[in-house]
Amino acid sequence: MFFLKNFGLKAFFSFIFIFFAVAIIFSAPRAKAASFDLIQTPGDGRVFMKENFAKRHIKDFNTFLSWGFNTSMIRQVSRAEFDATPTAPQLTTVMNYNGNVYAIICGMKAHVASGEALVLNGFSWSDMQTFADPTFGMLPTAAPLTSSGVRAVHIPSEGRVYYIENGYRRWIPNSATWNDWKPFTGNFINSEGAKSLPLAPPVSRVLNYNGAVYVIVNGGKAYVPSGEALVLNNFSWSEMQTFADPTFGQMQTWTPLQSPRIIACGGGIYLAKGGKKHHIETWDAYINLGTQYVNVSSTACNSLPNGSGFGRLIQGPNGQVFWLEGNTRRYIPDPGTFSGYNFRVSDVRQVEQSVIDDVGPGSDMARWVSSLSGISIASTSGRTGKEQHLWTTSGENSDAGHYNLTGVPATGPYGGINLQNGVAGTGAFGKLDAGIEKWYITMRWGYCEWYEDFGIRDGDYPSTQTRNLNSGLKSWHLGKKVIVSNPANGRKIVAAVGESGPAIWVTNARGVTSGLSPEATDYIVGAAYGLGGNVLEYGWAVDQNLPLGPLNW
Q1: Domain residue extents for the chain
Q2: Please, which residues have CB within 8 angstroms of residue 411's CB and are 6 or more apart in sequence?
Q3: Is the distance from CB of 104 to CB of 62 less than 8 angstroms?
Q4: C-alpha to C-alpha distance for 418 and 111, rounded to whole angstroms
Q5: Contact 242/208 with Cβ under 8 angstroms?
């Protein structure tokens, strides 16, 4: 009564029902298990496969699934039948049949092409068991198991990833190496069995193949043409490992590894050229080299000896001086041009030829320009007119006196034109120095506003007048040197500002934008002046110390 009181009537009758129900189940007559049945006996959680007259313990749940089993296939057998069935070796996922090895995958058998294929697909030699017919015959045949496409494995117990090459495993030692190898290897698979593969030296990003050096970049190989290219791309000789086919042949080939042209390290920016690093001393010089710098390690940086530093003015071994501009070197043809651009000798740096050669040649620094000290020349091209002579500061008071004073011949020695065409008087700038008068040029210079007054006639045309005179700017113009070039005959002269004109109507009617002294006209165009004459080019002389008259360049 104590038992019933504490256990409870409801629970007691439930217990009786379950006991007898179980007893009925296991006492009911049933057929014995047949070959390939899955069996289990009460009180034992293990599952076995009946094979012929024996039973094989199914090693684990993975094996259970690999054979294509499911729980509905399990039948319960009595302890007596269970114990009466001999136990054979375990049921595993690796089968030896007549000396051939097969792996069990999804209820099918797949012939194993190699030991590498076995372990790289997650199987283990320790699982291999011998099977015979009819078990072998009852399994459908799957495609052979190969190692094709398996290039990287992760061994969970080691926590390491390996590259598989020719039956060996090569450790991938760090994330930088893995990132460059991954596009080639693909994602790794997990395989504890890969531990059975022998070890070879670790992989690296630097590859020696038949004596040539390559680096691994984004899953491909790039030939290394020089040690400088290697270290300045942040690779290290200490990384180098030897590789053979098929790895080398299977990798895509990239363009050869190039040395970065400009590097940054240790707080400085350098041009890497000729096996040296050349300090770029100014940001202005760096900008005009036209290339972004590459950060390199201090080890790589220190591997290069220091070369010559430089800014924008560089002088090569042959003495030529250049100005760096727009990733070109522009030759400075003479000291006068150098000074005309306000360059300073103290800014010139002697550099090695490798620095000169690094920067492509550009156009020479111009000897004449359209703007000088911010003042634009009045015209850069156009025809010219032949002017008359002007009085000089020497005090002559007749045409003949002027010709005698200045030595003007009757006929020009170059163009054969008449040079004794009279003295016009005093020009806009007053009496001129005799040297300026001989080679003067006139334009409508920008020291005032030029306009046409239609109320005043100049023959058939409105008169050209000026207003808003800037006397300081007018003084600046007097004597300024202008280079005049004639593309038609290749001649050039240095002329000086000594008069203003021509009239606006002359430009409109004849295309004449300048006037030249008789001597200058004779040399530069001869008789090809005025309407239909040669079109000339004009610019301020950069070197304002050039002598007046013909140029030989």
Answers
A1: 36-138, 152-254, 262-365, 371-551
A2: 417, 418, 419
A3: no
A4: 110
A5: yes
Short-list 322, 318, 438, CA closest to 389: 438
Q: Residue 525: is it exposed, middle or buried by C-beta count within 10 angstroms (0-12/13-18/19+)? A: buried
Six token digits for residue 255: 């363009």
419 CB neighbour count, 10 Å cutoff: 21
Residue 329 reports pLDDT greater than 80: yes
Distance of CA 277 to CAs 22, 234, 304, 307, 357, Å? 90, 15, 6, 5, 15
The span from the CA of 433 to the CA of 429, in Å, is 11
∠ Cα 500 504 507 (to 5°) = 95
Tokens of 242: 């030897």
For 211, what's the count of Cα atoms within 13 Å in the CB-facing half-sphere? 0
Indicate the pTM of the whole model.
0.66
The amino acid present at 309, given as its one-letter code, is: G
- Asked if 215 contacts 224 with a C-beta cutoff of 8 angstroms, the reply is yes
Location of structure tokens 């030896």: 96
pLDDT in tens, 356-409: 999 999 999 999 999 999 999 999 999 999 999 999 999 999 999 999 999 999
- Which residues fall within 8 angstroms of residue 308, CB to CB, at 6 or more apart? 278, 349, 350, 351, 352, 355
Q: What is the DSSP string of 25-44?
A: HHHS--PPPPTT-EEE-TT-
* pLDDT score of 93: 95
CA dist list (Å): 470 to 75, 283, 427, 467: 117, 39, 17, 9
Would you state the pLDDT for residue 2? Answer: 31
CB 409 within 8 A of CB 367: no
The residue assigned the tokens 């002027």 is 402
Do strands 512-516 and 440-443 pair parallel, antiparallel, or not at all (unpaired)? antiparallel
CA angle 297, 299, 302 (to 5 degrees): 110
Instruction: Kindly list the strands in the beta sheet with 220-223, ordered across the sheet, starting from the edge strand earlier in the chain.
Output: 241-242, 206-209, 212-217, 220-223, 252-253
Q: What is the pLDDT of residues 440-476, one digit of tens each?
A: 999 999 999 999 999 999 889 999 999 999 999 999 9
What are residue 159's phi and psi, to 5 degrees? 70, 25
Residues 6+ positions from 314 with CB-CB distance below 8 Å: 321, 322, 324, 329, 348, 349, 350, 351, 355, 356
Residue 304 phi/psi, 5° resolution?
-100, 130
